[in-house]
Structures are given as C-alpha cells and as structure tokens.
Amino acid sequence: MANRKLGTKCIRSGYVPKKGEPQVLPIIQSTTFKYDNSQQMAELFDLEASGYFYSRLQNPTTDAVAAKITDLEGGVAAMMTSSGQAANFLAVINIASAGDHVLASSSIYGGTYNLFGVTLKKLGIDCTFVDQDLDLEELQNEIKPNTKLVFGETIANPTVKVLDIEKFAALAHNNGIPLLVDNTFATPVFCRPFEFGADIVTHSTSKYMDGHAISLGGCIVDSGNFDWEQNDKFPGLTTPDDSYHGLIYTKKFGKGAFITKATVQLMRDLGSTMAPMNAFLLNLGLETLHLRMPRHYENALAIARFLKDHPKVAWVNFPNLEDDSYFNLTQKYLPEGSCGVLAFGLKDYDATTTKFVDKLELVSIVTHVADARTCLLHPASHTHRQMTKEQLQEAGVAPDLIRLSVGIEDVSDIIADLQQALQSI
Length: 425
Ligand SMILES: *Cc1c(COP(=O)(O)O)cnc(C)c1O
Known about the structure:
CATH architecture of the largest domain: 3-Layer(aba) Sandwich
Bound molecules: pyridoxal-5'-phosphate
Radius of gyration: 22 Å
Strand content: 5-15%
CATH class of the largest domain: Alpha Beta
C-alpha cells in the first residue's frame, strides 16, 4: 500500500476486509478475546505469539486506525492513546527515566510545556526549553550527556512557528538520540516529518484527524529508522526486561521495538488506552482528512490576508503569508499548505480584545482548536494562564495573542463575522 496516494490511504489504509467481512471498520466492543487452551494464552503473555487478549493492550478496531496513521506518516508501527497528552508522555518515558534529560522547543502546546516542565520534573526527568530558532551550534550547547531526546512541534500551538525539522534532526543525531516531533497541526496531509529526519511522531488526534471535536485521542508513530543499539543510552530497549523473562526489545522486535515496548510495558502498566468506539469515530475523521485540510488552510490564508489589511489589527502570524518570518521554512516543510490556525493581535489590545471576542457571533470561544467550526481563544487568559509572564514570553505567547482556529464553513461568513466584531470596537 506504500505507493498509494495520500487521499487513497486516508480512506483505504488500516482496515482491509476479506471475503464476506464488513466493508466498514467494525467496532470490536470487547475488552477481552477468547483462546482454546492454556498454551495459547501462555504464548501471548510471553510475547512468543501475537494476538489480542485484552483491549488495554490492543484491540482490532484501534489497531486498524494505528495502521492507517502509520501508513499516512510513512512509519513502521504506531500505538493509539487516550489523548495527545498521553501520547507525548508515553513517547518520552518509553526512553527517558529518572536522572535523564530532554531538550524541547519552548514554542509548544501549553499542556506539553507543563508536562515537560512540571510533571516530568517531579518524576526526575529534567527538561531544558530552547528557542527553536537558535542555530545548530547554540542548540548543541544545551545538550547534556544524559539528554535522551529532542522535541518540537511541526507547527507550534498557538504561535504557529514552523520547526526546522532537519536542523533539529541533525542536533539529535549528532548526539546519538532521536528527534520526536508533534505533528498535530500539520497532519501528514501537509508534512510528514519522517521525510526530514524525525524518528518518532506524535499526534493529538483530537484535533484535525478527528476533525469534528468529538473524541479525544493520541498516537505515537515510529519511523523505524533510529538505531537504538548505536550507544548505551537506551537500556530500556536494548537490555533485558525482567517483566517479560529477560526479553530484549531490539533483539526480538527489530524496527518494532519502540512501539512494542510502549504497548506491552507502558500500556500494560499505565493503561491510557484509546477506546474502540473513539477509534471508530477517529477513523471517520481520517477518511476526509485530505479533503478538510486544504479547505482549513485556504480559509485561514484568506482570513490571514483580511486581518493583515485591517486597520484595527496590529499583527498577524500565519506561516504562509509571504512576509511571515517562517515563510522560508514553510516553503520547505509545508509547500502545499500548513493548517487552519493563525495568531493575531489587536491594536490597543487591553481595551479591545475582550470587546472584540464578545461581539463574535459565528466564531465561538472554545478551548479546542482544529475542528470543522471556526473558534477562537485568548491563551494568556485561558489555556496558558498557569504560566508566568516570563514563561509566556519564552513560549512566544504575547499577552495580546488571539488564536483563531479557522474552520471549514464558507469563508465569506467567517470574514463577515470578524468584520462586524472589529467594526464594533
Ligand atoms: C491539543 C494538543 C496536544 C494535547 O492533546 P490532547 O488530545 O488534548 O490531550 C498536544 N500537542 C498539540 C500540538 C496539541 O495541539
């Protein structure tokens, strides 16, 4: 299936029915699976045979969706999680533990910033946040002997900064560690980070992949390209796991080592599993991802241009605007489009932002982004409100920043709503 076009993969990959089977991905609503004798069960628990036994670890509906996303990203294996937060958490702790260090761009989703800066720290994993636009030499200064991974977002939420994936991959690989990229905003429709050297990709599938704001989910995809045995930094993958009779993941599962360990060890112990029903709903979203993303993008570009020309708007960030500081990176990594999210600020923002927001009729105020309905948020007073002024600045979230997630309604109606709200202030 590898040489099919992306739009075909969105619809056809993952679930391939055989003769007489349902044409549409069925919801296997069962926690458990039946076997004929003790031997069969024993082999499953020793990882000597593969098969379903308990939906906390694997479920056929969920696995079909994992296979589809694997195909879309061009990876070798994937694991679905209950949310995007769980995906990033599990991806990190699959290779980092107490005493280790991770390097992350400071321009990342607020929830991930807290996860890395607060919760992982409590677990003994230290994080350094860096300005992702520093050059390679400057970034190298932040790497420590115990650094286990480098992390960034293809398009940062909410600043819409574009990550120089090749630079981050070089940084990681020069130090014998993997690059993890959160590809939530771009989706594989617009960027496939593995093509630029990323090793692991994560998603909050709650966003564009689901596309309708109906179910939370996450995903970890492995490119299969990183050599875990090149050094002794990843003993969890390259030395015996006592909880499976001394099995060594890289020896037993080769390119599948990372996702297998995440599934049979972390999902087993932590259980942040995606439910089959949610996997089914996510799959419906994926079937139109290649149709929706271009529409999100075209609408956002038209609105970015409208806002840019408006006398009451102070600034607009959208990476595909010719004069945006990320335009060059966008040409390289996102040549066909980026996403539907843009950021902007109003002139005299203290006096105008709340008034403007409250005047909107079609555009809704919600915490969510990246679904069919246009919505808006003011991070400094909503999602990022736990951050200090300094942290906000470091994350590039200006106090006047308004995040607009452009939906797939008719763009003239969205512009008309923004226009009337701007006129009223
Ligand atoms: C929303 C989001 C997350 C967290 O995902 P949830 O599904 O809400 O847990 C992680 N990364 C990015 C870039 C996001 O936008």
